[in-house]
C-alpha cells in the first residue's frame, strides 16, 4: 500500500472506462514510479507484457484480473491488433484498464500505436512513463549514459526487425556520429549490426557492454568489444532480453565496478566471472 505519509492527493484518480498505459520499468519493482504503483492498486484488469516482472504483478490489487498479452521474438505472441482491440473492449465495459509494459510505454513499447488507437476509438487514456530498460541496463552495468568527457549525446536504436540488418536503420550513418549507441532487441542480429557499424567507421575495439535481463535476478553483464561482441555473447550463452551499450562511455565501467553497484542488488558474482572469462 501507499505509505499514508505520502500526500495521496497528488495521485490521479483511475476513472472507470479509462485505459492507463503504464511503464513497469526494467524489472526490479523498486524502480516503479509511485504513479505506476498506485495504478496497480486501483486497476480492475491488468493487460501485461512478457517482460513485466512477476514481483511487479504481485503488487496488484486483490481481485484485479490479470491478462497476458506478451510478445517475444521467435516465440508464439499476441498480435498487436488483438491487444489493441482488447483494450478498447475492456474499456467499454467500464472497467479501469491498466496496460502494463516493461520499461517505458513510449520507448520501443508500441505505446504510441495503442494510444493512437484508443484516441480514434474515443477512449480516454493516461500515459505513465517508466524507467526505460536502455538507461537502466547501462546503469546496472555502471555505465553513465553521458559524461562531459565522453559524449554529449546518445542514440537509442532497435535491432530486431527482419533478418540480418535489413531493418531500415542506416547503421553507417549512426557510426559516423561518433556518439554511443544503446541497442534494444539486437542480440539476434548483433553480428550483422556490428559489421555494419565497423564498415561505417566505428573501430572494432570500441567498448561494448551486453546486459541480460537488467535489474532482475537473471541479470548478467558481459564486457566485450564491437568486433567480437556477437561471438562473445554466444560463447557466454547470453539470452534475451538484452540491452547493448556501444561507445566510449562504456569504458568508464572498469573504473566504477570496484566500489559501485547498480540500481538493484542482483548483479551476480557468477555472471561477472563468466563475463570476465570471455573478456580475457
Q: What would the principal axes of the Cα set say about the shape?
A: globular
Content-based structural category:
alpha/beta
Strand content bin: 15-25%
Main sheet: strands, sense, barrel: 5 strands, parallel
Low-confidence stretches are 266-280
Total count of strands: 10
Topology diagram in text:
Blueprint lengths: L18 E5 L10 H9 L2 E4 L5 H4 L7 E4 L11 H12 L5 E5 L9 H10 L4 E4 L4 H8 L14 E4 L12 H7 L3 E4 L5 H10 L7 E6 L7 E6 L3 H7 L6 E5 L6 H4 L12 H11 L1
Parallel strand pairs: 1-4, 1-5, 2-3, 2-4, 6-7
Antiparallel strand pairs: 7-10, 8-9, 8-10
Helix pairs in contact: 6-7
Key descriptive features of the protein:
alpha/beta; 10 helices; 10 strands; 29% helix
3D architecture notes:
The chain has 280 residues and is α/β, with parallel strands linked by helices. The protein contains 10 helices and 10 strands. The strands form 2 sheets. Strands 3-2-4-1-5 form a 5-stranded parallel β-sheet, with helices on both faces. Strands 6-7-10-8-9 form a 5-stranded mixed β-sheet, with helices on both faces. A hairpin with a 7-residue loop joins strand 8 and strand 9. The chain starts with 18 loop residues before the first strand and ends with a helix.
Short description:
With 280 residues, the protein is an alpha/beta fold.
Amino acid at each position: 500500500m501507499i505509505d499514508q505519509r505520502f500526500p495521496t492527493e497528488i495521485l490521479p484518480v483511475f476513472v472507470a472506462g479509462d485505459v492507463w498505459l503504464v511503464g513497469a520499468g526494467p524489472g526490479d519493482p523498486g524502480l516503479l514510479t509511485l504513479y505506476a504503483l498506485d495504478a496497480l492498486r486501483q486497476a480492475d484488469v491488468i493487460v501485461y507484457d512478457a517482460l513485466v516482472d512477476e514481483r511487479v504483478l504481485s503488487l496488484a490489487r486483490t481481485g484485479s484480473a490479470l491478462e497476458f498479452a506478451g510478445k517475444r521474438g521467435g516465440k508464439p505472441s499476441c498480435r498487436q491488433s488483438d491487444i489493441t482491440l482488447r483494450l478498447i473492449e475492456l474499456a467499454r465495459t467500464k472497467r479501469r484498464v491498466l496496460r502494463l509494459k516493461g520499461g517505458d510505454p513510449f520507448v520501443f513499447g508500441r505505446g504510441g500505436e495503442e494510444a493512437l488507437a484508443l484516441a480514434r476509438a474515443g477512449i480516454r487514456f493516461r500515459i505513465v512513463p517508466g524507467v526505460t530498460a536502455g538507461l537502466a541496463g547501462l546503469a546496472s552495468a555502471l555505465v553513465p549514459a553521458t559524461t562531459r568527457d565522453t559524449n554529449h549525446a546518445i542514440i537509442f536504436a532497435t535491432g530486431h526487425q527482419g533478418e540480418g540488418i535489413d531493418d531500415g536503420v542506416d547503421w553507417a550513418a549512426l557510426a559516423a556520429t561518433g556518439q554511443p549507441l544503446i541497442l534494444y532487441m539486437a542480440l539476434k542480429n548483433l553480428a550483422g549490426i556490428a559489421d555494419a557499424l565497423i564498415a561505417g567507421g566505428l573501430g572494432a575495439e570500441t567498448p561494448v557492454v551486453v546486459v541480460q535481463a537488467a535489474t532482475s535476478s537473471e541479470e548478467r553483464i558481459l564486457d566485450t568489444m564491437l568486433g567480437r561482441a556477437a561471438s562473445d555473447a554466444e560463447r557466454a550463452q547470453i539470452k534475451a532480453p538484452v540491452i547493448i551499450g556501444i561507445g566510449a562511455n562504456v569504458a568508464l565501467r572498469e573504473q566504477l565496478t570496484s566500489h559501485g553497484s547498480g540500481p538493484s542488488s542482483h548483479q551476480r558474482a557468477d555472471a561477472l566471472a563468466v563475463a570476465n572469462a570471455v573478456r580475457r
